[in-house]
Predict the structure.
Amino acid sequence: MKIQSARVIVTCPGRNFVTLKIETDQGVFGIGDATLNGRELSVVSYLEDHVIPCLIGMDPRRIEDIWQYLYRGAYWRRGPVTMSAIAAVDTALWDIKGKMAGMPIYDLLGGKSRDGVMVYGHANGADIAETVDAVGHYIDLGYKAIRAQSGVPGIKDAYGVGRGKLFYEPADAALPSLTIWDTKKYLDHIPKLFEKIRDTYGFEHHLLHDGHHRMTPIEAAQLGKALEPAKLFWLEDATPAENQEAFKLIRQHTTTPLAVGEIFNTIWDCKDLIQNQLIDYIRATVVHAGGITHLRRIADLAAIYQIKTGSHGATDLSPVCMGAALHFDSWVPNFGIQEYMRHTPETDEVFPHNYRFEQGYMYAGDAPGHGVDIDEKLAAKYPYQPAYLPVARLEDGTMFNW
Ligand code: EZ4
Ligand code: CO
């Protein structure tokens, strides 16, 4: 059996997605997500110019060997572009193997560990009242877990807040738009938000919050402590994770559970945080962390330290990634939660899929492979549009973390 052809499909049904399609000499094909938000075309080039020529003629059944070939063979290891490209190949090959075996990917991995996968949705608002309403909306939709973000008085365009649209989409301009940040105002505001949410709805639902790499370790420790009465499911990206020792300081001060890893791309990014038990949830994903083959290694390492998975699942992770992620989540023994932001109806049409949401849980469906396809004719109607994530500056103009 041979890989006969492979091609990259770029489409923008509301936002940009990069999809790799691998076709075999036996008529079976598979697809994988290769979307890297705001840097999409670099992965397209990596795949078209450097990966696809090597794939032609390879045996698609040898998923592990192809993974090692692309990882070790590049010499230049790791990094988001390389690992997203490898992830796309890996996901497409697991899709092919599933279709050949007539099995959903969760069965190839060892079978389901659970019936449904708990997901969390995003409740956003311009202020506390709006966010509290949005949380109520998610409760009405059946969600068991909800991430809450709100505008902060005195801050222009705080992270995580939509601009009056149903679908919050941070990559919103052909060049990065400017947002302004002030951590003090944020720290004063967020405990009030969670106090109000708990006062309004009680403690039945899981609440989450994303700090989006904006705090220093001691500021994160203060917020974690201040949020303890609200009993968060997690505080995400409390501080940038390049210096992983920073999390020791946060840990010394608070019992609020911590989640990190949406921008990680290999097990090496996760290793110290996991082995020192500095986090509670690891957020690496199929698309940005080398596919199912590599994410499984990360999850297994995490499991021996009682750390659970909580994969990134914002709208820039395509339905192809979501499908693969839900198969992974259905299997992985140390599953914690899966992020889920609904895609636009246009996106859902371009990527017909088997997964579904029901009462706070997602179900991967039992189609062979990952159960997601791409309608190439429809995809062609939505050409690529440059779109960048915003940048953030402090009020005095200093460049900051978005
Ligand atoms: O900013 O997916 O938890 N979710 C997030 C997202 C990320 C975007 C970046 O591409 O932090 O909103
Ligand atoms: Co995040």
Remarks:
- The pocket of cobalt (II) ion (ligand 2) is lined by residues 210, 212, 236-237, 262 (CB under 6 Å).
- The CA atoms of residues 99 and 368 lie 5 Å apart.
- The two ends are 46 Å apart (CA to CA).
